[in-house]
Amino acid sequence: MGLGNYFQDPVFRAGLERTPEEDVGAATGHFLGIQANPGLNWDDLAWLRERTSLPILIKGVQHVDDAREAARRGVDGIVVSNHGGRQVDGAIASLDALPQIAAAVGDELAILFDSGVRTGTDVLKALALGADAACLGRPYVWGLALGGQAGVEAVLKMTLAELDLTMALCGLTRPAEIGPDCLASP
């Protein structure tokens, strides 16, 4: 079921000798060869850069060395993310990785943050620890499932209202004022 979006895609299906309905094992193997391609490496970014003028961001950065390599390779930004913790059980929490990464490359790259952002308070924490922006994953999907476009809009409005309230409780009036001093030291 988790591969249903691929199994229904005409381009994906065109790469198969038999349909997923006929041979689910072969279709799954084809997916793994595309999705988890061990042949991809840092050098592939040059190929990508040659083919687009769009900003290139690398998602899944959890270590300072990878952030520095991304900057060296000329990407426009990174997403500090452990993919919601579901990809590598026991991986470092993205929030724990963020301050060191921001200190290392924050002047060179846009730093986005995801993994567990559910509230405006979570957004404030990410910004305080060095992110330029925070990404919402599951909350907007929940809003979409429950109320379509209006549900997504409600989630975004609630998140912004929570951020605004949290900033006010910290004595702040603009996101640019958010910094590490907003948080208690461990």
Q: Could you explain the architecture of this structure?
A:
By secondary structure, the chain is an alpha/beta fold. Strands 1-2-3-4 form a 4-stranded parallel β-sheet, with helices on one face. 23% of the residues are buried. Helices cover 49% and strands 8% of the residues. It has 3 domains: 4-35, no CATH class; 43-114; 116-186, no CATH class. It starts with a helix and ends in a 17-residue tail after the last helix. The longest helix is centred in the C-terminal third of the chain and has 32 residues, at 138-169. Helix 5 packs across helix 6.
Keywords, separated by commas or semicolons:
186 residues, alpha/beta, 3 domains, 4-stranded parallel β-sheet, 8 helices, 4 strands, 8% strand
State the gist of this model.
The chain is of the alpha/beta class and 186 residues long.
Which helices and strands appear, and what pairs or packs with what?
Blueprint: H1 4-7, H2 10-14, H3 24-35, H4 44-51, E1 57-61, H5 64-72, E2 77-80, H6 94-105, E3 110-113, H7 120-128, E4 133-134, H8 138-169
Parallel strand pairs: 1-2, 2-3, 3-4
Tell me the strand order in the biggest sheet: 1-2-3-4
Q: How does the overall form come out from the CA principal axes?
A: globular
Number of helices: 8
Approximately what portion of the residues adopt beta-strand conformation?
5-15%
* Uncertain residue ranges: none
Rounded to the nearest angstrom, the radius of gyration is 20 Å
Distance between the termini: 42 Å
| Count of all domains | 3
Beta-strand segment tally: 4
* Mean model confidence by pLDDT: 92
Order of helices and strands: HHHHEHEHEHEH
The main β sheet shows up as: 4 strands, parallel
| Percentage of residues assigned to helices | 40-55%
Query: Which structural class fits the helix and strand makeup?
Result: alpha/beta
